[in-house]
Amino acid sequence: MNRSILIVICDFLLLSLLTFSTDLSKMVGENEGSAAAFKADVLPKTGDNYSKDLAAVMQQALGEEQKNREQLQAELARGREAARQQQQQFDQQAKELLQKQSSLEQQYAAAQANVQALNQKLQNSSAEISKTREQLAAKEAAIQKQAEQGAALQKQIAQLAKNNQAVQDEKQKLAGQLQVVEVEKQAAAEKATLMQQQVQAERAQNTRLAEDFKTLATNSGALTQEIRENRALAPNTIFNEFVTNRVWTRFLASRSGFLGMNSSSRKETETVLVTDGTHVFALCHVQDTPLTLGEPGTDWDVLTGTLDHNTAQVPIHALSFHLQDPRVVFMPVTKAEAAQLGCKIYPISSDPFKFQDAVVIGAGGDYYGESSFQIDLNTPAYVKLDRSLLKGLFGKFNPSRGDLVFSRTGELMGIMANSTYCLVLHDFASEVSFPFGRDIHAQHTGEDLSRLFGYVFNLPSKLR
User: Fold this and answer.
1) 38 Cα distance to chain centroid
2) In which element (H, E) is residue 240 found?
3) pLDDT surpassing 60 at residue 449
4) DSSP code of residue 273
5) Please, are residues 263 and 269 in contact by the beta-carbon 8 Å criterion?
6) Residue 325: HSE in the Cβ half-sphere, 13 Å Cα cutoff
7) Which CATH architecture has domain 235-463?
8) Three-state SS string across 117-143, please?
9) Is the confidence at residue 220, as pLDDT, over 60?
10) Rounded CA gap, 117 and 102, in Å?
C-alpha cells in the first residue's frame, strides 16, 4: 500500500474517533436535558437519584468510549508500524531505484556517446560496407561452419566422455593387471638378455634376406614380362582383337589397252599394321592386289590405294615385294598415319616356335581356326600347316594363301604363302618396290612382275 494513502486513512480514523467522542458528549448532554424534562414531566424531581443515574450512564459511556479509543489506538499503532515498515521498504526500493536510475543514466549517456560514435563510424564506413558484403557473407558462412563444427565437437565431447568413462574402467582393470605385469616383468627381464642375442642374430639374417629380396624384386619384373610373353591367349581373344584392329586395304590399278581402250582392276582385303620395331607396314598377299606375277608381266599406268580403319583413311604411298617370297607384299605407313588410323600395331613374333599351334585368320575375316605347324628343315623360312589337326572355330575353316597367322601370344607370326606353307616374318627386306601414283608408266612394272614370277616359279613345288 502507498504510504500517503495509509497516512490519509489513519488521519481519517483519528478524525472520526474525535468526532464520535464530541457527538457522544453532546448526546449525553441532550439526553440529560431530555431526561430531566421528561422526568420533570413524568416523575417527581429527585436530584440525588438523577445525578447518580446520569453519572452511571456517563461512566458507562466513557468506559465504552475508552475501550473503543484504546482499540482504535492499538489499530492505529499497528497501522503506523506497518506503514513505517512499508515506508522503510519503499525507501530502500526507492534508494535502489535511484541507484539503478543513476547507473542506467550513466549507461544511457555512455550508450548515447557510443551511438553517436557508431553513427559517425557508420556514416564514414557506408562505402566500405558495400565492399565488404562478400566478406561478411564469407564470415557468416565460416561462422555457420564453425557452429556446425561446434555441434560436431559437442557430440565428440559427449562421445569422449563416454570413452573416458570406459578408459577409467579400463584403467582400473589395467591397474589390477599391472601388478601381474610387474611380476611378469621380472621374468621378462631375465629373458631380455637371451632375446637380445637372438635379435642380433635375426638382424644379421634379415640383412641377408633384404639383400635377397632386392635381388628377387629385380628379377620379378623380368619374370612378370616373361610370364606375359609366355601366356597363351585364347583363339577367340586373338580373333576379337583382329576384328577390332583390322585395316581395310583398297587398291585401284589401270592401264591403256588395245586400240586405246583402258582397263582397270579393283581389289580389297583386310589386314593389320605390323612393325619390326622400327618401321610400320601393312601387308597382304599379292593375289589380294590388282598385280599379278606372270609371264609376261603387266605394265600399269596408275596405281592408287588407301588404308581405312573406322572413319580414318590414309593413302598408300608404295608397295614392296618381300625379298624372301615376293608373293608377300607390304606397304610402308608413317608413324603419324598409324596414329591417325588409331589401331593396334602388331609386333612380329620374336619366338614363333614357342607354341606348337597358332591361330589362322582368313584374309577376308570370314573364318578363323586353330592349327599346329611343323618345322620343315628343307624350307627354314617357312613352317608347314598340319592340315590333319585343323580346328575351325568360326566360318568354313579351310586355310588358303593370304591368311594371317598369329602366335598364341597374339603376335603376328607370318602369312600363308599357299594353302600349306606359312612364310615366317623376321624382317621386311625388299628388292622391288612400286611407287603409287597416277602416272607410273615409266616404272615398267611388267618387267619386275615377270622377273618376280620367275623367282617364284623356281621355288620348290611344295612352296608354289
Assistant:
1) 124
2) helix 235-245
3) yes
4) E
5) no
6) 27
7) Beta Barrel (2.40)
8) HHHHHHHHCHHHHHHCHHHHHHHHHHH
9) no
10) 22
